[in-house]
């Protein structure tokens, strides 16, 4: 189809920082891709370029952050010619696409949750979306309902379920005086720790561990809202390493 206007809307939630939410492309080089990159939302659009290179249509816009928090986020894309309104969680961003063309010419399939393998380098480097979507609407068509009633051909590829599975995580709440102590791993030369955290306090100790044989210690804390790692080593000249993010 060749459209002058498009309205695409959906809601999603995910714990993954990368994944293709929506993709469509055409034989003339037109495409539209909505994806997560480093937990930010990226919309890439091309209404057409010419072979001489004098008209370059590729446009890319980034919005949002930390969208892999497993909370629902809503997206609305409204396009009229080269004018685009991109709304993420009620925050609207307006921009104009590059190039000189107004129509989006998509004559291949449109996919939600991933993109078909086309042999192009861009298709196999992109991850499929892993998470939940609801209220998918494309130019007035309720895609979620059509897919559930199997009114789309082909409707889905791979394992697609019409329910949203919640991750099995158990949070731990700490007050100002509590802490959790776990046994160390003696005779291991690797120290590895990972966790998610949420706090309103700008300062606090997150992790502390002494190394065996009085070799030093490692400390992870928040200070004025920034996460810092401090490694103290007793037996070398440069005996302290500080990393802040």
TrEMBL record:
PROSITE patterns, alphabetized: LAM_G_DOMAIN
Record Gene3D superfamilies: 2.60.120.200
Domain Laminin G: 1-164
Superkingdom, natural source: Eukaryota
Matching SUPFAM superfamilies: Concanavalin A-like lectins/glucanases (SSF49899)
Xref: PANTHER family: CONTACTIN-ASSOCIATED PROTEIN-LIKE 2, PIKACHURIN-LIKE PROTEIN
Protein's name according to its UniProt entry: CNTP2 protein
Protein source organism: Grus americana (Whooping crane)
């Amino acid at each position: 189809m060749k459209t002058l206007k498009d309205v695409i809307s959906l809601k999603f939630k995910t714990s993954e920082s990368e994944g293709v939410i929506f993709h469509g492309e055409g034989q003339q080089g037109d495409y539209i891709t909505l994806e997560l990159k480093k937990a930010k939302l990226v919309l890439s659009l091309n209404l057409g370029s010419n072979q001489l290179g004098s008209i370059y249509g590729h446009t890319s816009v980034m919005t949002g952050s930390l969208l892999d928090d497993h909370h629902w986020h809503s997206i609305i894309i409204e396009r009229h010619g080269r004018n685009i309104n991109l709304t993420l969680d009620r925050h609207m961003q307006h921009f104009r696409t590059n190039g000189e063309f107004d129509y989006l010419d998509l004559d291949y399939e449109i996919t939600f949750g991933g993109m078909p393998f086309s042999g192009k380098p861009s298709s196999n480097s992109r991850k499929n979306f892993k998470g939940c979507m609801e209220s998918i609407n494309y130019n007035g068509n309720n895609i979620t309902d059509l897919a559930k009633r199997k009114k789309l051909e082909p409707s889905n590829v791979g394992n697609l379920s019409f329910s949203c599975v919640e991750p099995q995580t158990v949070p731990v709440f700490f007050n100002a005086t509590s802490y959790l102590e776990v046994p160390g791993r003696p005779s291991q030369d690797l120290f590895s720790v990972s966790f998610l955290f949420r706090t309103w306090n700008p300062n606090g100790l997150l992790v502390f561990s002494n190394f065996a044989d009085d070799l030093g210690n490692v400390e992870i804390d928040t200070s004025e809202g920034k996460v810092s790692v401090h490694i103290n080593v007793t037996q070398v000249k440069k005996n302290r390493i500080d990393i802040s993010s």
